């Protein structure tokens, strides 16, 4: 099983800004209803600028069982964050989860 399916820490740690051109109403695939405008060129996944942060597309309980409700249509920053990366490990620690070992990712 992919460790991301039991984690979700990154989705509840980081602000997710991306180009408005990734929104479905601009020809992209990210549902516009799940984003808020930052400026004319950028938008942000709803919920990721809250305290505590939690992406509106995230379902489930952090560290147990999670899923992305728009996995196939998620924005580029979500594609770029890799399991076991420095950002992943920092998010896991922020949520009290053990770091991923090299053999798990």
Structure description:
This protein is an alpha+beta fold. 13% of the residues lie in helices and 17% in strands. It is built from two helices and five strands; from the N terminus they run βββββαα. It has helices spanning 76-80, 86-94, and strands at 17-19, 35-37, 42-45, 58-61, 65-68. The strands form two sheets. The chain has a three-stranded antiparallel beta sheet, with no helix packed on it. The protein is elongated and about 40 Å long. It comes from Variovorax boronicumulans. This is Fe-S-cluster containining protein.
Separation of the first and last Cα atoms: 10 Å
Largest sheet composition = 3 strands, antiparallel
Approximate strand percentage = 15-25%
Helicity, in percent? 10-25%
Inertia-based shape: elongated
User: Compute the gyration radius: what is it?
Assistant: 14 Å
């Amino acid at each position: 099983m992919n460790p991301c399916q039991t984690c979700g820490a990154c989705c509840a740690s980081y602000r997710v800004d991306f180009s408005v051109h990734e929104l479905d109403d601009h020809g992209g695939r990210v549902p516009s209803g799940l984003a808020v405008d930052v400026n004319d060129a950028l938008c942000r996944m709803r919920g990721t600028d809250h305290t505590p942060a939690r992406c509106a597309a995230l379902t489930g309980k952090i560290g147990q069982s999670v899923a992305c409700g728009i996995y196939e249509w998620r924005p580029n920053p979500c594609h770029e964050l890799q399991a076991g990366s420095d950002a992943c490990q920092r998010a896991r620690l922020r949520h009290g989860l053990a770091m991923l070992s090299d053999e798990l990712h």
